[in-house]
Amino acid sequence: MPAPQMPGLASGIDTKDIIRKLVEVEKAPITRLENNKKDLSDTTKALGELRKRTKTLQDALHAMASFEAAFEQKRLNSTPAGVVDGSVRKNAPPSRHTLQVMKLASNLSFASSPQSLRTKLPAAKLKIGATESEFAGGTLQSLREHLQKYHNKDITTKTVQIKEDESILIIDSVAQGEDALLKIEDPDGLLKSLGLLAVNSTPDFGKKDSKDKPKDEKDAKKEPEPKETTEKERWLIQPQQLEATSGAKGVPAEDKKSLAIADSSATLYKFLAGQNSEERRLTSISVAAMASLGDHEEDAAPDSLSDGVRENINIKGIELETYNITRTREKEIMKRADFGVVLKYGDKEERHKLSGLTGPQTFAVAKGLTGVEFYANGADIIFEPLELTYAVKPQPKVDLTENKEAKTPAEAEQRKIFPNLLRAAQNAELKIDGIQISRKSNSNLGDIIEGVSLNLLKTSQDNVETEILNDNDAAKKQVLAFVKAYNELLQFSDDVAKTAKIKEAGKYREMRAESGVLATNATIRQLVNGLKVHTSNAYPTNRDPHIRTLTQIGISTGAIGGKREEVIKGYLEVDEAKLAQMLAEHPAAVKELFAIDTNGDLRIDNGYAHVVENFLEPYTRFTRGLISEQIKSNAERVKQLDRDIKRQEEHVKSYETKLKTKFGYMESSVQKSKSTGTFLKQKLGGGDGR
After folding, report:
1. Domain ranges of the chain
2. What residue ranges carry the coiled-coil annotation (predicted)?
């Protein structure tokens, strides 16, 4: 029976309004679920911010507990500035020197005679330095490309068009000083015909081979090499050093302490030049790996399969022989997963499987390691690069009594070999405390001032006064960065974990609205209380004046006699004058307050920064961390709420349809009754009156 087009027309009842109100009542659970979802979303957002701020504090502490600590960092002060600069090792002794830079080292630059763009050059054999090549012939541009391809370790090339149909070829040596005067052999005379050389073979320019020196002279000067020291550092994954070699590129964690590699993918971590050099050489790496959380599904299957003790059982008079059976089944994900690392040495590589291994694995590293490839097949894998171990060469001893005389010939002599000489090669020449010395480079001069890698920036006829000073500003910045991160974390915790006071019984909702979104969260209270305890503790120290607490270097929760309410909050205040004084007078003792090796194994194992950094680790960890697990749990609950909301919305929609149908039938019944009444009235009570 079709429902009326206009609800309530027959009954006179506003059925549309009744249906609307009934549906609103039925929608009440949806409102409650949406409110719960919003509360969870707000909680998740606050937890994410808490983890971020905690990580900022942990990073600031790590900077003071690792090799990045600047407490004993030194700097080179030069007056006037701009003539020299340099980096100073922490163990550099205090010293003052007077320098004068007369000449800077320069590389060799020479050009060809002008050549027509249409000139075809013949084939020729060439040898530059130790590299031989054969030019197949062609234009001047072809020769430039050939030299750039086969001799780019020794020279750089470019062509300059000087006229509409003429160009010149310019060759620059990569090296500077005496090393720029390469041995060049031109047996077919190609370079000579172009005006690049005046001879078919350049001379040795007076360079002496070590084998020409008397044996007694070499042995007399030979000294035993100083022993290398061992340094360890946390391996942090820098995104810019990652390169996908197959499949998807690995994704480093926000804290750079782990690397996620997708199934059937591999990513190469390339070491920078400073990360593995002759002076600081990698000797071993430490790494751990595990399958991603998404691959660890609960599996209640037994772990072994074997025959047990035989037993007899009687069932209704029938005796049967049975076995106790234990089943073994390897987890499928681990059965098919293959993951590990590949150590790259140029064209060679060394593969190490990590599948089947648990915990950190340490691999020895040979000389020349260029990168480490992380690979995963059969599962998504999370790698945790843990530690890099280095063998560090000590800074060479400075002996200025052995003057290194310039070996580069004068410009006039070089011009005899290179007719179109643009810039003559020359060594740098300088004086230090009145002693004249020569070096073949302008940068990284480590044998002039002990403990300093010196860079020559420009010449100066005036003396330059240099002094090695403690870089207290860098250490102060690290301490202030820690205090700022600490206070910001406590301020945020106070805001999100505050609890409103109960003003009146039965006002729970109002009180809840005034409270912070994490007011009932135990994790944040545990975090803040733990931080305050560690900050007030004393720590071991070895050096005078035995700085054991933060208050001794000017960091406290308030001045003596301050307001109790402010002190209880736990915010740190810094007496910058006292801090600067302690850093200037006792930098090593301040360093021990934050990080100290108490047992002599060359590993930091105590100190405020070390202890608190490790305390924060469970809170900042992205994999199975205290905060991360709550975020993950909230995400699952939000998904369930979305499903509940969708199911309730479908129920409300069905309920509304049923109501409209029922009220439609009611209207039809009323309409039919009215029609019947009108008909009966016309038949019985109306008509002609008989």
Report:
1. 49-70+473-627, 76-99+431-468, 106-206+407-426, 239-392
2. 631-658
User: Taking the CA of residue 466 as centre, how many other CA atoms within 13 Å lie in the half-sphere pointing to its CB?
Assistant: 29
| Sign of the CA dihedral with 305 first, then 308, 314, and 320 last | positive
Q: Give the position of tokens 């690290």.
A: 478
Cα–Cα distance list, 426 to 339, 533, 679 (Å): 53, 63, 125
Strands 242-246 and 265-270: antiparallel
Residues linked to residue 6 through DSSP beta bridges, in sequence order: none
State yes or no: pLDDT of 266 exceeds 70.
Answer: yes
Instruction: Report in angstroms the alpha-carbon separations of 404 from 394, 401, 428, 438, 553.
Output: 22, 9, 11, 6, 47
Query: What SS3 state is found at 681?
Result: helix
Bridge partners for 489 per DSSP? none
- First vs last Cα of the chain: how many Å apart? 37
pLDDT at residue 226, as a whole number: 63
Fold of 239-392: Jelly Rolls (2.60.120)
Nearest CA-CA partner of 400 in 99, 104, 80, 178: 99
Q: 3-class secondary structure for 447-509? A: CCCCCEEEEECCCCCCCEEEEEEECHHHHHHHHHHHHHHHHHHHHHHHHHCCCCCCCCCCCHH
Kindly report each contact of residues 684-690 with a partner whose C-beta sits within 8 Å and lies 24 or more positions away, as own/partner. Answer: none
Pick the closest to residue 638 from 47, 8, 5, 11 (CA basis): 47
Q: What is the DSSP string of 235-260?
A: ----GGGEEEEESSPPEE-TTSS-EE
Q: Which two tokens stand for residue 364?
A: 């020895």
What is the pTM for the complete model shown? 0.60
**What is the rounded CA–CA span in Å between residue 46 and residue 6?**
51
3-state secondary structure of 445: strand
Choose the weakest-confidence range: 127-131, 182-186, 220-224, 328-332: 328-332
Q: Minimal CA–CA distance to 99: which of 447, 449, 469, 453?
A: 449
Residue 172 three-state SS: strand
Q: Give CA–CA dist 73/79, Å, rounded.
A: 20
Check pLDDT > 60 for residue 38: yes
CB 27 within 8 A of CB 687: no
For residues 397 and 451, give the distance between their C-alpha atoms in angstroms, rounded to a whole number.
Answer: 8
Mean pLDDT over residues 2-10, rounded?
54
Question: Which amino acid is residue 160, in one-letter code?
Answer: V
Q: Which long-range contacts (CB under 8 A, 24 or more apart) does 251-256 make?
A: 253/622, 254/55, 254/622, 255/55, 255/58, 255/59, 255/620, 255/622
Averaged pLDDT, 556-569: 70
pLDDT in the model for residue 331: 46
Helix (H, G, I), strand (E, B) or coil at 55: helix
The label of the residue with tokens 């707000």 reads 42
